[in-house]
């Protein structure tokens, strides 16, 4: 019961955040330089004042600002972000086409980073001060300092241009007939470099967090109690240290998972991955602000969604949550 | 202070970071002396590989000297990284301090605001802000600051909440010290160590954000930056790999230096936190 | 009692890592623990007593190691055992109870799971056997409703209950030896008494040997068969409890015993009650609401810290405010120094209500009511030199620099510190010295009333005596009034004229200190008095103790 109330509270909060993001987006569209109607009309090839008025009426730009805001928010609530000025199609269609690619990329990167980070972090903590710890700590430090888009370029240079092992661009090999299995393998091949690139920074983060968390728990009193009970080391690690140390990491990680969607812009741009990050880059080049901000709202929604997931995971996994709530 | 310096000298990562940083700062300062003139101008034959005579890092497709770009770019990276961090820390410390000291409704509102900014995907927000307010030095610094201040605010608030409960702060209250006196002289100095450590890491992440923005073409076109150089060299990657490789290395070394420096500061300022890092 | 040793320690050296304040935590220690006895190892902080316990368990922290000598268990030296053999003994034949019940249990495992794994680790394979044993153990340690409680997580239990779970865990395999490291220090005094009784009862029923580590001679008097006293890593005295407590031979033991017993020797003022009160509290009420923040609130918890409290403090009088944790005593102290606002009721200083005063009037009053805090490590700003700590507040209230400095120097003299202290930072002083600085900081303001909030609770007993004597001396010399807040009746008895006993936000008894202690009227006061560890020993021969006289003569 307490947990349900806790989650309900979180849900309300999530909706408030999304509302605020939408209002912010609306404000930013309006803050963009130039009267949108003039820009629109200009792009459609006419600066005739009458035509501008027409455009203004068509997009509701002649209404009072509060009404426009209300309409925008109401639209977003129904997933209606209006049309893309550039593509002349509903924004939500464009995003819907591109979203699966982004999700495949980010979730692969996330899972790789989390698994690798947990393993590396625990290994480092277990051998704290010895060579495996040194190697892992330095590796994490180096990964942390790498600009991702550059890593992507260098990976293309090495694995595609020099060695020719993996494809450099896109998600599919175009113009070749393939069986479903073959197509899946083809996507997987295309996925390797971008997913590894995107995962690298998070791998470094999770490694550091895991190492710190394990080291902290190792020093706690109840671990000493477990030793005093005569338990085997293996059991102490599994039931006492890891159970307590990994819980916050998994929560923190799922909090960050949502940020990956928005963080994929650079990686998708470098690898020409047909996701919403790449779409955002195109929208940016073409000053298609309606599309850009819709992507921005969707990316925020992912963060909010994963925050909820993290809360859920946490409230199920940690018995103390009722007290914290 | 001498004690601080002595302990910092003993931190290996801190010293490596400091030396690298000083080198970068010197590069930035003497860029005009070593590579006078506009780094955008054509200086030699196009597409010279690194270690060509007179062009240590080669030239690009327009014959611009890559080494000159690196030196002048150091100036921009450090400047933007530093400026945006100063703004972010200013805002973060202010918000965190007010929230942590006032508690109640003010604290609640400020923390909702902070959480809100932490929820929005930060790089995307930076892109949107710079795109809409057009890429100038000012808008880039502001955009990076806008996405960077929340962690500082949370940290400062947490420190304030703990410190406010400390007896020496209560003693000052019982003594009738004014609120501003208590915040400035009793609490803030004791809350600064972790902020300083976080600040050095923040400069690093600001530099990464800036390079990402210029890579996407959202840099100020009046100045050459490392991110722009990588973006420009990207299409040439099959023929002239050094055009993107070398500026990327420069970013990597800078960010690494700042991280190492931050690690060193952390070892000295928060011995409790880094205890488990040592053996 | 059989006198056969189960555990014997021979010329044990425990070395500390480089850079510690001394090379050895324990030096050349010889000690025997016999079957069927409780041996108390007593010492102040830094005596090495806790490291001795962890050394026996083979759980020394990294960097600390056994540098010489040996520990024999039932005739076998631990050093000759493999890790696996040692582990078989640990938890089964020797087990341990730790100080902090709040942190010693794993927060994400239930009580049952934590008990179960000891049994599994030591070869109880049938799960029905284990379940039966778990219920037995929970019952034997006096926990209510074992069937339900076994499925609880530790955060659901009170401190005393958690400590019972720890004890159940230690007893799971009927060990020969239980090592208890300050097992009651973190508990309230009434809970402490229950846990001590439980340990004693179990020890006698199962005839086990208990090595009981403590800093408290009261606890020793309550529970020990034999006593070993440690100082700076050395064993300075060992013998039957009777002898060590009543006729200690070593000067250090004598000093410690005198420090504890000296507390029953009253140093209260001879101020007559009545007269004009300097401070009167009327109908003070304060309720704290915790949890549930933000616009969607979750579970809120209300704690009534003060329920309609009324009490006076006379000029030159010391009023003791005694209670266990959560009684509201500190809340009242904070209200008096205006660190928090009351919900209702008033506090009158010189018959003027503080609440009704203007800002300026309040600012003028503030220096007159000063406070001395509990934790000497948190009460001084680590970044300010003592000079600033002692003069800044004075100057804020308009005292010229030179005069403020002069007063700071005088007060340092008064609290027995060198004037050179002014140019040093807090971390350069010991706990006792910092507490003196804290007192000086209060005194430079020339207060009329001092609130001492657990002012000696964090100090070692020998330092405690000195600081208490200092407070009493200053109070008498400067004719100060004092609100003395403490959880320790013994300490209160020493310095207070009157005592108010608080429980759950109410004053349950108020009276002359001697009367409250000797003939408590309220059942709770009675319970507090009875729970005082070593009460029988203290009241045995108060005042006229020849030892006490001799110690006084020596000026200890």
TrEMBL record, chain A:
Which keywords does this chain's UniProt record carry?
A: Cell membrane, Membrane, Transmembrane, Transmembrane helix, Transport
Q: Where in the cell is it found?
A: Cell membrane
Output the GO biological process annotations, alphabetical, semicolon-separated.
transmembrane transport
**Superkingdom as given in the UniProt entry:** Bacteria
Q: Where is the ABC transmembrane type-1 domain?
A: 99-310
Q: Does the keyword rRNA-binding apply?
A: no
Q: Note whether Cell membrane occurs among the keywords.
A: yes
Report the protein name in the record: ABC transporter permease
Q: Which organism is it from?
A: Seohaeicola zhoushanensis
The organism's lineage? Bacteria, Pseudomonadati, Pseudomonadota, Alphaproteobacteria, Rhodobacterales
From TrEMBL, chain B:
Compartments, record wording:
Cell membrane
Q: Which GO terms describe its biological process?
A: peptide transport; protein transport; transmembrane transport
The protein's matches in InterPro entries, at most eight in alphabetical order, are given as: BP-dependent_transpt_permease, MetI-like, MetI-like_sf, OppC_N
GO cellular component terms listed in the entry, alphabetical order: plasma membrane
Every ABC transmembrane type-1 domain range: 74-262
**Keywords, A to Z?**
Cell membrane, Membrane, Peptide transport, Protein transport, Transmembrane, Transmembrane helix, Transport
Give the primary localization class. Answer: membrane
Q: How does it sit in the membrane?
A: Multi-pass membrane protein
The answer on whether this UniProt entry bears the keyword Glycoprotein reads no
Membrane spanning stretches: 78-102, 123-147, 195-219, 240-261
Q: Which Pfam families match?
A: BPD_transp_1, OppC_N
Family assignment? Belongs to the binding-protein-dependent transport system permease family.
What protein name applies here?
A: ABC transporter permease
Instruction: Record the organism.
Output: Seohaeicola zhoushanensis
TrEMBL record, chain C:
A GO cellular component entry from the record? plasma membrane
Q: Does the keyword Plastid apply?
A: no
Q: Where is the ABC transporter domain?
A: 9-257, 279-529
Pfam families per record: ABC_tran (PF00005), oligo_HPY (PF08352)
Q: Which GO terms describe its biological process?
A: peptide transport; transmembrane transport
Organism's domain of life?
Answer: Bacteria
Main localisation, per the record?
A: membrane
Q: Return one GO MF term.
A: ATP hydrolysis activity
Instruction: Tell me the SUPFAM superfamilies matching this sequence.
Output: P-loop containing nucleoside triphosphate hydrolases
Subcellular location(s): the record lists: Cell inner membrane
What membrane topology does the annotation report for this chain?
Peripheral membrane protein
Keyword set, alphabetical order: ATP-binding, Cell membrane, Membrane, Nucleotide-binding, Transport
Q: Does the keyword Disulfide bond apply?
A: no
Matching entries from InterPro entries are given as: AAA+_ATPase (IPR003593), ABC_Ni/Peptide_Import (IPR050388), ABC_transporter-like_ATP-bd (IPR003439), ABC_transporter-like_CS (IPR017871), Oligopep_ABC_C (IPR013563), P-loop_NTPase (IPR027417)
The family classification in the record reads: Belongs to the ABC transporter superfamily.
- What protein name applies here? ABC transporter ATP-binding protein
Q: From which organism does this entry originate?
A: Seohaeicola zhoushanensis
